[in-house]
Amino acid sequence: MYYSSIGILATLILLITNYDVLIKYSRKNIMPAHHSYRKFLFSVLAYYITDVLWEPLSAYKILNVLFVETTIYFVVMAISVFLWTQYVRIYLNEQNRFTTILKYAGILFLILQIAVLILNFFIKIAYWFGEDGTYYTGPARDFNLFVQFILFLATTIRMMFITPNTHIKAKRRHRAIGTFGLTMAIFVILQAIYPLMPLYAMGYMLGTCILHTFVLEDEKEARHEELEKLLQVEQIQEAELGTAWQMAYTDPLTGVKNKTAYMEDICGIERRIADKILTDFSIIVFDVNNLKLINDTKGHEEGDKYIISASKMICHEFRHSSVYRIGGDEFVAFLRGEDFRNRQTLLESFNRKIEKNLAEGKVAIASGLDEFKADEDKSYQKIFERADMKMYERKKELKSRV
């Protein structure tokens, strides 16, 4: 069972080393050459299976079955060589004379090999078995191996020829593919000399290990580096987008949300009101008193400081709410959650501070609060109008005190 044991060992090594290619396989983010390589590996696996079956059939001298199995063996061998030439062609991704010749040489080799094996049923030109089960080879079989030798050697020469001109990271891969071709060329010659030894399987076993170590693993590393670069670019773009968003939706003077953000959020509130999924919330409308007077008497720089102070007071009191500056001296706050539950307490505290400011000649802000009433409010505008009206009443009150 020495002959079959090599095939069994080669099969196990192929399945273990190439598990991610043969079994754990996804077309997503896989290069075209990998699809071609996967087909090649399956053909090698099929070759191992036919090679393993050859010895027990030969030992029991089931000659008719053995003859058919040997024919399948050579067909699978031819398919694997054809798929190898296609893999090299796709991997190189070149449009030149070599890849064209390689493409058609692989196809022609496969067709001729099948034709020879069909003819061999009638005229023994490739192989046959004696009455005692002895295996004999003919000139067609030797010619088949010679053509394989040329094809494998040609890929080696081509790889060694183009390697010096390739990128440093691709050199290892090109050399590995060239080494595979050289390995197979050597073992093909040895198989021709020793037909009853599993040398062809040994060549594939050694060659596929080389490919997996120096081609697939290297490509994975290169792909990982590429993905890391893409991730870095994406993170930079997200940061830039976040900065652009912040600039587009933030008031540059106060740092609160601006009118653009306010209008977009109103659209979202309108949709949720229409869908009846928004219930508990209220709004407060603010208006900063005496801004025009300050701008006219002290200048716009002092007016800006006045606006900033007003914004800080609003944000400090309603710290859990979204605050918007919707005009020169107008602010709006959406109260939800904790601020909504404590709205009256917060408003009273805010008004007390404003009255103290008023007495001390500091910033004064009129405010008006109203809440959403699910049974009568069909739009945001109704709530805003009620709150705005209360704000004007408060404004008149503050002015009367002055």
Would you mind describing this structure in some detail?
The protein has 402 residues and is an alpha+beta fold. It folds into 2 domains: 2-232, Rhodopsin 7-helix transmembrane proteins (Rhopdopsin 7-helix transmembrane proteins); 259-401, Reverse transcriptase/Diguanylate cyclase domain (Alpha-Beta Plaits). It contains 14 helices and 6 strands. It has helices at residues 2-17, 19-22, 32-59, 63-92, 97-120, 139-162, 168-193, 199-249, 259-274, 291-298, 300-317, 337-341, 343-360, 380-401, and strands at 127-129, 135-137, 282-288, 322-325, 330-335, 365-371. The strands form 2 sheets. It has a 4-stranded antiparallel β-sheet, with helices on both faces. Strands 1-2 form a two-stranded antiparallel sheet. Strand 1 (127-129) and strand 2 form a beta hairpin. Helix 3 runs antiparallel to helix 4. It is rod-shaped and about 125 Å long.
Helices and strands in order:
Elements: H1 2-17, H2 19-22, H3 32-59, H4 63-92, H5 97-120, E1 127-129, E2 135-137, H6 139-162, H7 168-193, H8 199-249, H9 259-274, E3 282-288, H10 291-298, H11 300-317, E4 322-325, E5 330-335, H12 337-341, H13 343-360, E6 365-371, H14 380-401
Antiparallel strand pairs: 1-2, 3-5, 3-6, 4-5
Helix pairs in contact: 1-3, 1-8, 3-4, 4-5, 5-6, 6-7, 7-8, 10-11
